[in-house]
Design goal:
This protein is of the alpha+beta class. It has 16 helices and 16 strands. It has 3 domains: 70 residues, no CATH class; 250 residues, BirA Bifunctional Protein, domain 2 (2-Layer Sandwich), CATH 3.30.930.10; 93 residues, Anticodon-binding domain (Rossmann fold), CATH 3.40.50.800. The structure holds adenosine-5'-triphosphate (ATP) and magnesium ion.
C-alpha cells in the first residue's frame, strides 16, 4: 500500500510524554488503513496530530493513516522464537530448582496502585523519583506498571491474610517489570525477573538458602564465574550511626560528588556508595564500612550467614559498597555478579527486608528474597552455548492434492499426540518441500508422491544420515511414532 497523497510526514514521538505509535491522523490520505487506536488517548496533542481527547473520555476509535511502519517502543524488546526457546529452557530449570527448595509459584498483576511502590520502594529512590511508568486511569486512580515484584508479593500475602494461617511462605514469580531507565545492553525498560521470597523467617539461614539456590541455578545453567557479593545493611537501630559517619565523611568531599549524589546526600546517603560514576567511586573509596557499625544482633546475624556460606564451600566477597537501591532492605544484602555482563555486572540481587510488611500496614513479619534479571541471565547463557532452535521431529512432504488430503489427518494425529510434525499446505515440488524441511530443522521427512500413493508406501528419510525406510501408509501414524521413538 502506498502513502502517495499523504501530505504530512509521520513523526516519531520524543520525550516521555510522546505517543509511542508512529501513526498520524490524516483524513486526506487516499490509502487509509483502518486502525483502532486506543493508546492514542495517552498522547498529547502535537502539531500535525489531531487533538486527542483528555484521559477519562471514552476510547478513541478513529480512522488514522499509518505513514510508516510501527516499531516497538524504545527500551522494549521482542523475544523472538529462537531466543524464547532459550528463555523457556531457563525457566524450566529455574522452576525445577525453585521447586526443589520448596518455593511455590504466585502470579500477580503487573499493574498496582502507585502508592504501593511509593511506600515500599521509597520516595527517595531512582525508581520512584524518575523511573516508574505511572498514569491516572479513567476513574482517577494513580496506577503504576510494577518496577519490581517484591512489593506486590507482600501486598498479596497481606491482602489475603496468608500469614494468619501460616506466616512461613516461600513464593516465586516470573514476569515483566517496567522501569524508565536509559536503555543499553542489559538494561531495558521492560525487563523480566525471576523473584523468590521467603516470608516469616528472620534467620540468616533463609538468606543463605536463597544464595545457595542462586548458585545452584547458575551452575546448572552453565554460568561458571558467578560470584556472590554480600553485605549487611544493619537495622533501624544501628544504621543511623553509620549514616551520620558517612555524612561526616562526605562533608569533606562534596565537590567531588556528582549532582545525583549531592541530592542523595539529603535523601538517601547510603546510595552514594552504589553510584556508578567513577568520580564518586573514587571519592568514596575510603568511606567508613557499614560492617563496623552493626549492633550485636546484626553482627551475629551476619556472622552466622558467613559461617553457613563457608560451611557450604561457597566462595563470596564481603562488599562494603553493596547497599542496593531500594529503601526496604535491612541486614543481609547480596548480589550475584559475573564478568560476562560488562558494565551491568549484576545478574541477581536481593536481601532481607524485615520492615516492609509493617510499612505496608501488616504485622511485623520478617522477609528475605531476590530478583534475577532474566534478560541478563539469558544473555549470559546464550553467550555460553548459542541459541539453538529446535525443529520438528518429522516433516511430511506431500506432493499433490491427493497426497495432501491423505497426509493431513496424520499430521493432526501426530500433533495431537504431542509430536511436533509439520507440512506445507501448498502443492510445492519435492525440492522446495525438502528445502522447507531443512530450513525448519526437521529430523525426518516422510515423502509421499504419486508413486508412494500407488505403492501405499511412503519413504521416511533421515535428514542427517540421508537413509530412507519404507512406511506403510495404512499405518502411517503408528509407524511414524515408532520411527520417531515416540512409542510407549
Ligand atoms: P542495577 O544496579 O543493575 O540497576 P538494580 O539494583 O536496579 O540493578 P534490582 O532492582 O535489584 O536491580 O533488580 C534485580 C536484577 O534485575 C538486577 O540484578 C538486574 O539483573 C535486573 N535488572 C534491573 N534493572 C534492569 C533493567 N532495566 N533491565 C534489565 N535487567 C534489569
Ligand atoms: Mg537499577
Amino acid at each position: 500500500m502506498s502513502n502517495a497523497g499523504c501530505r504530512q510526514p509521520a513523526r516519531r514521538g520524543k520525550g516521555p510524554e510522546a505517543c509511542d505509535a508512529d501513526i498520524q491522523v490524516d483524513d486526506r490520505c487516499p490509502d487509509t488503513i483502518e486502525i483502532t487506536i486506543f493508546v492514542a488517548a495517552l498522547c498529547r496533542a502535537r502539531p500535525g496530530w489531531r487533538r486527542v481527547p483528555p484521559l477519562g473520555t471514552k476510547p478513541d476509535t478513529r480512522t488514522v493513516t499509518a505513514m510508516t511502519s510501527i516499531r516497538s517502543i524504545k527500551g522494549f524488546k521482542d523475544i523472538l522464537p529462537g531466543e524464547a526457546a532459550l528463555w523457556q529452557s531457563i525457566e524450566k530449570t529455574a522452576t525445577e530448582v525453585l521447586g526443589a527448595f520448596g518455593f511455590r509459584e504466585i502470579r500477580l498483576p503487573i499493574l498496582e496502585k502507585t502508592e504501593l511502590f511509593a511506600r515500599s520502594i521509597g520516595e527517595a529512590t531512582d525508581i520512584v523519583e524518575k523511573e516508574m511508568y505511572t498514569f491516572t486511569d479513567r476513574s482517577g486512580d494513580l496506577l503504576t506498571l510494577r518496577p519490581e515484584a517484591t512489593a506486590a508479593v507482600v501486598r498479596a500475602y497481606l491482602q489475603h491474610k496468608i500469614y494468619a494461617q501460616d506466616p512461613v511462605q516461600k513464593y516465586y514469580t516470573i514476569g515483566p517489570m517496567f522501569r524508565r531507565e536509559r536503555p543499553q545492553k542489559g538494561r531495558y525498560r521492560q525487563f523480566y525477573q525471576i523473584n523468590a521470597e521467603i516470608f516469616g523467617v528472620g534467620s540468616p539461614y533463609a538468606d543463605v538458602q536463597l544464595i545457595v539456590m542462586l548458585v545452584d541455578l547458575l551452575e546448572r545453567l552453565g554460568v561458571t564465574d558467578a560470584q556472590p557479593h554480600v553485605n549487611s545493611l544493619g537495622c533501624p537501630a544501628c544504621r543511623p550511626d553509620f549514616r551520620r559517619a558517612l555524612l561526616d565523611f562526605l562533608a569533606a568531599r562534596e565537590e567531588r560528588l556528582c549532582a545525583d549524589c549531592l541530592r542523595r546526600r539529603e535523601t538517601n546517603p547510603l546510595r552514594i556508595l552504589d553510584c556508578k560514576v567513577p568520580g564518586c567511586r573514587e571519592a568514596t573509596r575510603d568511606a567508613p564500612a557499614l560492617s563496623r557499625f552493626l549492633c550485636a544482633e546484626c553482627r551475629s546475624h551476619f556472622d552466622i550467614l558467613q559461617g553457613a556460606l563457608d560451611a557450604l564451600g561457597i566462595a563470596y566477597l564481603i562488599d562494603n559498597r553493596l547497599v542496593r537501591g531500594l529503601d526496604y532492605y535491612s541486614r543481609t544484602t547480596f548480589e550475584i555478579q559475573t564478568s560476562a555482563l560488562g558494565a551491568q555486572s549484576a545478574v541477581a540481587g536481593g536481601g532481607r527486608y524485615d520492615g516492609l510488611m509493617k510499612t505496608l500496614g501488616g504485622p511485623d513479619i520478617p522477609a528475605t528474597g531476590f530478583a534475577i534479571g532474566f534478560d541478563r541471565l539469558a544473555e549470559i547463557v546464550a553467550a555460553g552455548k548459542g541459541t539453538e532452535i529446535p525443529g520438528p521431529l518429522v516433516f511430511i512432504a506431500a506432493l499433490g492434492a491427493e497426497a495432501q488430503a491423505r497426509a493431513f489427518p496424520w499430521l493432526a494425529a501426530l500433533n495431537r499426540s504431542g509430536i511436533w510434525a509439520d507440512m506445507l499446505f501448498e502443492d510445492k515440488s519435492l525440492k522446495s518441500q525438502m528445502k522447507r524441511a531443512g530450513k525448519l530443522g526437521a529430523r525426518k521427512v516422510l515423502i509421499i508422491g504419486e508413486n508412494e500413493l500407488a505403492a501405499n508406501t511412503g519413504q521416511l528419510r533421515d535428514m542427517t544420515t540421508r537413509e530412507q525406510v519404507p512406511v506403510s501408509l495404512d499405518r502411517a501414524v503408528e509407524e511414524l511414532r515408532r520411527h520417531l521413538g515416540a512409542d510407549g
